[in-house]
Amino acid sequence: MRMYKTVGRFLKIGTLLSTTGLIVTVSLQIFARFFLPYAPSWTEEASRLFFIYAISFAAGLALKTHYYVHLDMFYNSFPSKVKKAVDLMVPVITFLLFAIMIVFTVELIVLGLPEKSPSLGFPMAFAFFSMFIMSASICFYAWGHIQRQLENRKG
After folding, report:
1. Model-level pTM?
2. Helix pair angle (80-112, 124-154), 10° resolution
3. What is the pLDDT confidence band of residue 155, given thresholds at 50, 70 and 90?
């Protein structure tokens, strides 16, 4: 349970910092376009990176709190046994897909180490690491949903 809280806190802080960074860089970009002779070129890439990280940190939290889109009308038409099967299969499939994504994301991060971003000059592995954060957090919370579904079936 402690790890569950720690991961959640890490994702919340990451989401908050990334969103704040996005707001600051976009505000700077807008200010520069109106009041300065030119806008800094790095703000476009930085805002894109902050947006990507905000989504990556928030994706696991969305799964944790069931904030993803559900097709309730379709789901509610199922019989009880089918609903129970769907309730287990969706997190299992989600877990498997994002576990596969983790494997390929690690390869992508390694490929991005020598590549540099155009205006900020940092390794692209940093940008690609956001996909690892998203995949790992979704797997973490999908695994928790699977465990709860299996415990509910026993009890």
Report:
1. 0.89
2. 160
3. low
